[in-house]
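To whoever is covering the structure queue this week,

Two jobs came back overnight. Logging them here so there's a record in the thread.

Job A:
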Amino acid sequence: MFNIPTISLAYLDTNELLRFGSVGESVQFLQRDLAQLGFNPGPIDGIFGNLTKSAVLLFQQQNNLLVDGIVGRQTKNTIKNLLKVDSKNVIVYTVQRGDTLFLLAQRFNTTVSAIMETNGLSNHIIYIDQRLLIPSTKEMPQPQQQQLPSQQPPQQQTKQQQMELEMLELVNQERVRHGLKPLIMDQNIVMVARLKSQDMIVNKYFAHNSPVYGSPFDMMRSFGISFRTAGENLAGSPSVIRAHTNLMNSPGHRANILNPNFTHIGIGIVEGGPYGIMFTQMFVGK
């Protein structure tokens, strides 16, 4: 429908809102830039469809923006900041398990604040497989098992993380009480579960099948989550403990929590919606 776009960031300086259903050259530039930053928008065709919306939602979540799928001023500014960094002084790094901003700053001879500013981060939270732009020209050699017990500053947990960890503890208490192994929290699944909770709030529904992502299994696969078996619990409630109690009182949801075949879990809790807080538990067996 449209020609391949030339390099241009002009669309990022306009007040035009890009959202599901938008079409045109600005959408095509957006798709190109998302792809360049490591977020798959689907075909670069100038049509803001489901794949492009999924890429925008994931970009917003990983950059601590409002996760609404709409490309407005904040999202545009973050894209612009990431794209305008001088590539000669930047290393594109994919976050690995165990990485922290403090360790990456030491490894690449830079500072935590420089990494945060370059990537538009508002806190110290980073995710496995997240792509970061590291403002450095050389990597400092580090031993394989570096111990920094007193040097690493503590990372303050957000309210969202605290609620998710509280629910994880409640779930694993039930499993241990029934002679089952506790579930391991997988941050990649957490990101998908958060998107599902946000999607239910934004699109005003409460169901396993999403109008954007399809079934929970399709959604997990589309974000690269592999599994032998999987399940999903949904809840809407004003508190973690009430949501957990309601889930345990429901035979189907209780069966997922106590399923011996599940090994990992992602819990996504987002405030909002008609119930006050939306809860998504995604279970997988690997």
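Job B:
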Amino acid sequence: MRHELWGPEIHNHRISDQASPLVSFILKYDLIIWNDKDSEPTFETVNEKSWIDITLSSANLANKKMNWQVIKNNFSDHNYLVFNVVSFNATRDPPRIFFNHRQILKICKAVHQKFLELQEEIQTIDSKQKLEKWIEELTNTSNQISQSFPRKVIKHLRVPWWDSELEVNRKKTRALRSRYQRSRREEERSMRRIVYKKQEAHYKWLIKQKCRASFELFCQQLIANNAFDLSYKIAAGKIRKQTVLQSVKTSNRQFTNNIKETIQTIVQALFPTDDSTQETHV
């Protein structure tokens, strides 16, 4: 499939829209194209050459790309696509950032104002480069105003006993609660409240069951090798708690502020400095 996104523009070629589904797929999932438009053709025969082989990845992996190139292959019409990837530790996707209604309205007003400023330039756009520049200015305005907002990241608690069953029940509970709160008629509201409360009770019961089962499995793993290990010591109260030093009052009737001052004050009280002038001579 030929397209200007991953290959040079070919004039006098038959009109074809075969690459449109792939382009839509790339845009939908925010994929990055690694291909270099100025590279050697990825497909080459005696009669023709083309750029139809594509390398795609996520934006996170694309930042680690190094030395993407096309190497001739004498045993096939398709050439080799060779690249290097910088070693890195796999990380989770960055957390999603949510905007409230006021922030979204502020972004819309800023983009609308910028659009009015650039509106006259639309008539002068006669090339792909000018169009991309015009879109980039509009996009930069949106990004600048959105980055000025304080970030409120929604983080979810990660526990080992959480599974798909709990996830489904949580969504169901929230949906029933939303339906109950949106109800206006008294009869419908009472009925939906009963349904919501039953689901909420079942959801809470599931959480307790999963949590307890996970803890029991943890205990079984602890005593698998030694029954008198950590679990036995905890049950028998044989775990020594770490000593916590509190603030003490100094000779100046002030309390210490850190552990170092506390230790020095205690040592000074137990082992005072010897004063030779107060010694009794025999």
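Note for Job B: The chain is about 45% helix and 5% strand.

Please reply-all if you pick these up so we don't duplicate work.
Q.
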